[in-house]
Each structure stands twice: as C-alpha cells, then as structure tokens.
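Handout, page 2. Input:
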Amino acid sequence: MFIREVRTKNKKTGEVYTKHNLVESARVSGLPRQRLVMGLGHINLPRSEWRKLAHALECQLSGQISMLEVQDKYIEELALSLVSNIRLSEKLKIKRESSSEDLVVVDMRSISTTQTRSIGPELATQNAWNLLEFDRMFRRCGFSPVDIALSKAIIFGRLISPGSERATIDWFRKRSALSEFPGIDVSELGKDRFYEIGDMIYEQKECLERILIDRQQALFPPQDFTVYLYDITNTYMEGSALGNDLAEYGHCKSKRYDCPLVTLSLVVRNDGMPMFSHIYKGNQSEPETLEDMIKRLETLLGYDPDQERLDKPTIIMDRGIATDDNIKFLKSKSYQYAVIKRADQAEEFRAIFEDERESFIRVTDPKVSAYGDTNNVYVKKLNGEDGEELSRVLCISEGKARKQDAIVGKKELCFLDDISKLNASIQKGSIKNTGKIDARVEKIRRRHRQIAAKHEITITKDGSRVTGITATKKTDLPKALSGCYVIETTHTELDDLQIWKLYMTQTHVEAAFRSMKSDLGVRPIFHQTADRTSAHLFIAVLAYHLLFAIEHTLELHGDMRLWQTIREALSTHTRSTVVMKDIKGNIIHHRVSGLPEDIHRDIYKKLDATDPTKAITSIINTECSDR
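Output:
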C-alpha cells in the first residue's frame, strides 16, 4: 500500500485543494490497477514519511504489528487516529448486529485481532453502578448526560486502574472498553474536562452522599442496632504543595515524614458499608474531629441535635480519638459507644490480668497473621460500679502480645546499639570531653525515651577520664501487660464475647482505608491545590462505595473474595476487533466481546452482570478504480 496525493481545483475561485488517499496495487483481468483502500483527507506530513504512514495504516487495518522504530511512534498514533475515523468514509458499511445474512467466506490466513480492551472489571463495576443508581443520583444533583459520562469514566478508572488522573484518562482511552458501553462516548474530550468534572463532583459532595446513604440503607438494611465506625487517616503528597491549604506536615501513618500530608476521615457501618467522609488539613488532631463528625452524621440522617432519641446509633472509634472529653461528649448527646480509651486502662486491672486468667473465656480470632499464626483472645466482662451504666471487657490477645513484644524488642536493640556505638567511640578515643559525652547520653535518652526509662545507664571513669558506658535493664520493673487491653461500652446488656465482637468491627473502617490506599491508589497525591486534592480523595470514596457493593453482593452468595482478586480474575475477559479478508479482497473488522470463561461466568452470575455491548461489523469495500 502507498499514499497518493490528489489535487482538486475550485472552478469558481481557482483555489487548489489537496487530499490524500491510501491505495494498493492489484491486477484485474491481467491489467495493473490501483484500488482505493481509504480516504485520508489532508495529512500534514512530509512526503518522506508517507511510506512509513502507509505501512502503519496497513498494519492497523490488517491487525498486524508495526515494525516502525520507537522514534516514529507519532506516525503510529496518526495511523490509529485515521483508522478510528474510518467510519466516516463513504465506502464503509456498518452493521450494528451480526445475523445469518452477514455470512461471508474469508481467508483464514488473514485473521488477526487488534484494539484489545478490558471489559471484565468494567462489567462488574457497571453492575454496582446500576445497583446504587449512580446515574439517577448524579441527575438529581444537576449533572448533564456528558457530566455523568465523564464522572463514570474517572470513578471507574479509580476502581479498575488506580493512578493519577492523567493515567486514568490514558486507561479510559487506550485500555478499557468502557467508552463502548451504551451512553455518551467522551473519549475524545480534552483532559481539562476530566479534571474539571472532579471539581464538579466535589462541589456536590453533600448532595451525593445524602442520596447514596438513602439508597444503600434501602439495599442493605442494618442488622439489629445500628453501629457506626469512625476513624481518620492521612496520606502524603508529592511536591512542596505550597499553594495547597490542606497540605501540612504532621505524624505520617505511612512513615513519609518528608512529605506534606492531607487527612481523610471516614464513617462506615459495622458491616463495612461506607457512609460519609470529610477532608482535613494534614496536621489535624484526631480527637478534635469527633464533634464535627457527629454534627455531620446528624445532618445527613436528619437527627434533631436537641431531641432525645432512643434509636441513635452506637459509635465505635479508634483509640486515638477516644479521649475522656470525647466520651463525655458522646454521653451528653445520648450516644451509645464501645471504645478502647486513649489512656491505657490495663494497668488499673493488672491484678485480674495476672491472677485470674483462668476465668477468662477463650475465643479464636478468625484472622490469621502474616506468619500463619492463629490469634487466641481471652475475654472477661466486668460490670460497672453502682450507678455506673457501663461494662468493661478485659481482653488478652496473644497476637497483639507477640506484636508488642517484637516492637519493644526492636526498639531496645536500637537503644543498645546507640549505647554500644558511643562506648566504642569513647574507647577509641574519638570523644574524650565529659560534657560532650553527657550531651550524647542525653540525646540517646531523648531519642529512646520509653526504653531508656527501663535501663540504668552507667558511665565508668578512671580518675577524671571516661573509659566506657554501659546500659543495664532495671530488675524492679513490673511485668509488661503485653496484649492486654480494656473495652469500655454502654451496652451492658451484651455479654463479654458480644462486646468484643462489637468492638472488633472497627477493623472494617481500617480495611476501608487499606483499600483506598492500595486498591484505589489514593497515594501519593500529585495535585498542588486544595480543591483538586479534595476531589481526588472524594472520587476514591465514591469508588469505594462501588467496591463495597461488589464485595458485599458476592458475600451474600458465600463468595468472600476481595476486589483485588476479583479484578485480577476478570482482567482476562476482553473485547477485541477481529480483522480478516474475504474472497473479494474486502477488509472486515468485527468488534466483539470475548466469550467469558468459567471464572468470569461465576462472578457475573453472582453479580447478575450482563454485557451491554453489541457486535459491530465494519467492511472496507475495496472496489476497483482506474488508475
């Protein structure tokens, strides 16, 4: 195949127009002829590059791999763009659905595939999208059909191929079949529209969350009494983020103390269903967020803050938030709660932990550690004192004890290593001044404050000269209560095992944060403005709503697979264009979804997911035209 230039002169104005065609040589009735393959319009490309473009076009049409060099990638992209617009050609016949009338004889040697796109994870996500009625929700919040299509693209991308917004756009255009689902194709819109739709979504955050809560409560009604789990986390940002009002340095849970942070709070139900979220500055104090969360909860659920209600939910929160002041606040608002207080209560019940362990009830935690160990937990309920409507459950966790002992052991090794290094420097004579040695010792004490308090540091001298330093563990210290903790709750009617299980639902909000940081790729954040950062995080929260709907629906069918496993299993279900030639030399493009395999069908059946795309056949008619 090669490219031919055609010039046309306007008889009235005398203006000359230039267009280009892709043609191929063929012999018809023994005579050489040129067949028009496709019209290209006017291409702005040097004549020296036409041969490469013809080769790239031929490969695109026949489904072959181009042999162009890396530096000629722009030519391949031009060829792809021209072939993508081929449906506009007058010589192209498009049939939306295949039928028996479309039967043709084809050359088996010419069959290949091209433009393979993912469709499996998209079908699972589409089912959750429909189940939660996202289209209706966005319409109620004032979104146009184009806005809804753009919102769908970036939310699906966050769930299926997490990355930066730029990476999401690339996934949507080049690796996903989502643009072929019924609706408005927005794949040709500029990247600015994809960024702007994120801003628009965040502007409607309150409206969207209120509608989502109502829909989810109707789909998945709470069991027994309602329990809400509350926690906050932070994630780090790339770059200085000097223009970002949310970016602040603080205690990073990802250990990235070199980066500015932003904080996300989340409320989920005790079965893991997400309720609502809020975004704070990176240095936000955890305990100070509870009152704000309760106000938002009452607004979204329509509670009158001054009215006594018997159906108020139970609040379970992370230990970092459970201060005495926050517990007093919950009591003043008549909320039930179950917490482990921020101030350690284990020491108060040391005698029971040490002397009455045989009276505890053993329960096996279903979670298995990374080392394959099962975690035995021992629980014992204590009723509150007279007039105190509280219960406390003393807990001893073997797994927690192993973890705490390992952490303390590691810290102790670091402390002793610093002492050993200082001792080596003293004996080597690198440091002799007593004042400098005392300063180094004080620095070590500050760095390892908790461990240093359990050791006696001794400096040996020969006259006025320091000869060495040692650290000896104190022997009069009480035994550490490793793995011991106390759950405090207002649910006095529950037994010790029920209270322990109630508090352990806190792991659902921790799992939500893990999913957002790993499965949904919220970190790192590359945006340098507060609005874009907030939009980025809220899109991840919306994607988590879909993730929960998928996992929960499968769980109702006894399938406990997590989204990461589901996404990987469905990634092999794709949609491709089958390219072939018939006996007349016409090039046929048949766009069709692959047949689902057993693992795909199993998931689709449980989710009640169906493929909304149709087979599309495109025929490039290569009728002869004289040279």
